[in-house]
Design brief:
Blueprint: E1 2-4, H1 7-15, H2 20-32, H3 38-44, E2 49-51, E3 55-60, E4 63-70, E5 75-83, H4 84-95
Parallel strand pairs: 1-5
Antiparallel strand pairs: 2-3, 3-4, 4-5
Amino acid sequence: MHVISRKALTEFWAVHAQARAPLSAWYRIVTEAKFGDFAGVRRTFNSADVVARDFVVFNAISFRIVTAIRYNRGKLYIRHVFTHAEYDRWSARLKKGLS
């Protein structure tokens, strides 16, 4: 997959240094993957979830990576990188329709 953009990960681990190893590992796996659909994502990342029909959320140890995937184009867009607490707040807002 072509990941757009790694910068979101590097900015996140600049603030949360402990995130560097798990996010780097996730990035390496994703860039080598060829996901044709969400089932393909789940075969590689069994804890990935679809949220609000638009986002695929990955768990990377104590962090959440919110993405939008365009399977037909082979592109994965990183929308947000969160700690679990930040993700919980974002998710609650999303459920209320405030995104």
